[in-house]
Amino acid sequence: MAWLGGGDEALLEQVPQERARFVQMAGVLLTTSGIAVVSMIFALHDGVKAPLAAAGVLGLLWGVVILNLDRFLVLSMGSTRNRTRLVLITLPRLALAVVLALVISTPLVLRIFASDINQQLFVMQQKESRQEAALEAGSGEQQQANRIKTQINTDEGILNGHLPQSITSPQLQSAQTQVSQLQRQAQSDYQAEVTAREAWQCELDGQNCVGSSGKVGNGPRAQAKYQEYQQAVSTYNSVESRLNAAQATLKTAQSGFSHDLGSRVSQLKAQAQQALPGLQRQYQQVQAELRGAAASGRQVNEANTGILAQLQALSQASATSPSLEAARLAVLALFFLIEILPVTVKFLLNMGPLSAYEVVGRLREEELIDAATARRIESRRIEEGKSRVRIGVEADMREREEELGRRANKHVAAEMAKILDATLRDWSLQVRAKLPSGGGGADLSVASPGASANGATRPIPQLGPGFGLPDDGKL
Predict the structure, then answer these.
(1) Banded pLDDT at 443 (limits 50, 70, 90)
(2) Are 192 and 74 in a shared domain?
């Protein structure tokens, strides 16, 4: 437990009184990881609908992850007492702890308020079902089904003797249209005739009607009103005669249509009898597709009970209930504070003075640093001594090489001098042998070790080709 809380066994042996503090920190870490295990089991079992055994195994793995993260957050904060540095290293760790706390506390809150959430989920599902029904009623498939059903009803009505109002002929339709138009025009002209007659009568009687002069008698205004009245009567009589002719035409068309109605009805019944089976099959197919879509929508709606749906339901339920909102926030704050407890406790401990464990730890760290520094200095001195020895050996070697070189050069120079003397002696003897007896010519003096007993210098003749020298005169 002490190791789990971040303690070093070697240091705790020196300060055993500090062991309880690390054991308590380990208990805090196990508490947060245990809550994380329970939270993950609820999230997987309630939200994802995973089997309880699988949820338990994954929950334990999640607990190990949270334990490892919390322990890392605590150990990484160290034992610094610098307030600024402590705040800077705490903030990112606290932010991570806050995120973990929110993730872990959410499933627990949902589990605690499960009854309120289920009730709100039912309300949400009913509302969603009504919306889906409205969408289905306005869908293209439903409109197609309505059109097919209307056609089926029409065909069945024809087979049962209920003829549609659309059965008519072009002549009959034209006559009906003309009669309708003339009737409206005749009614309008008749109203114009009545209005003109009343205006003329008001002008004759001198009544204060709208637009009259108010003078009695058949004056110019009365005569003008009379002319308007006569024109309205003429127009009405013309329209009336045209209406009578159109009505006569309509009667003729109706009489002709009644003779063809029997064959037309037989034709419509035959067409309805032929088209009705296909329409019924098509209608059943469209209805089956609509029922399948509705069933699929209901299934999806009923299965929408995951974590997001539960959060939405809890939010809506809390919005209408202040007490539920207060309880939800209180429970969320409780688990939230528990989850950030390790980082908070470590921060508060670092705000106080150094403990005996931390003092011993720093001393041990300084000893390790001093030992490493001493080993480094010793190693550097050893390397410097080795370097000086190598430099001395190399200098001595260079001196010995120079001495040997001088001795070799001296010996070579002596040997070369002997060889040169011998060569010149042999050359001198050869030249003497080639000179004529009592010879003439210029004198040639050659200095050689055996030239004369008293060291005198003999003359050397001027030599040319044929006297033992090359043409260029070089030895």
Answers:
(1) very low
(2) no
* Gap between the Cα atoms of 466 and 430, Å rounded: 12
421: Cβ contacts below 8 Å, ≥ 6 apart? 449
pLDDT band at 419 (very low <50, low <70, confident <90, very high): very high
Burial 252-274 (b: 16+ CB within 10 A, else e): ebbeebeeeeeeeeeebbeebee
Quote the tokens at residue 239. Answer: 């329209």
* Backbone φ and ψ of 3, nearest 5°: -65, -40
Q: What are 34-48's pLDDT values in tens digits?
A: 988 988 898 888 777
Instruction: Please give the single-letter amino acid code of residue 17.
Output: Q
Same domain, 272 and 231: yes
Q: Is 430 inside any structural domain? A: no
Domain count, the chain: 3
Residues 140-152: b if buried by 16+ CB within 10 A, e if exposed: eebeebeebeebb
Instruction: Tell whether the model's pLDDT for residue 458 goes beyond 90.
Output: no
In a domain, 2, yes or no: no
Q: Which two tokens stand for residue 441?
A: 């010519």
Same domain flag for 162 and 209: yes
Residue 126 amino acid letter: Q
pTM, whole model, 2 decimals? 0.44
Share of the chain above pLDDT 70, in %: 84
What's the rounded Cα separation, in Å, for the pair 397 and 408? Answer: 16
Structure tokens at 456: 């005198």
**pLDDT at residue 61 is higher than 90:** yes
The pLDDT tens digits of the residues spanning 100-138 come to 888 888 888 888 888 888 888 888 878 887 777 777 777
Asked whether the CA dihedral 168, 170, 175, 181 is positive or negative, the reply is positive
Domain that holds residue 286: 142-304
Q: What is the pLDDT of residue 465?
A: 43
Q: Are residues 156 and 296 in the same domain?
A: yes
* 168 and 286 together in one domain: yes
Within-domain flag for 470 = no
* In a shared domain, residues 54 and 68: yes
Q: Which residues pair with 269 in a beta bridge?
A: none
Question: Same domain for 264 and 341?
Answer: no
* Same domain, yes or no: 265 and 194: yes
The DSSP result for 261-307, as a single string, is HHHHHHHHHHHHHHHHHHHHHHHHHHHHHHHHHHHHHHHHHHH--SH
Asked if residue 424 is part of any domain, the answer here is no
Q: Is residue 192 a contact partner of residue 235, using CB atoms and an 8 Å limit?
A: yes
pLDDT tens column, 299-358: 777 777 777 888 888 888 888 888 888 888 888 888 888 888 888 888 887 777 777 777
- Which 3 state secondary structure label does DSSP give 210? coil
Structure tokens at 411: 């010996």
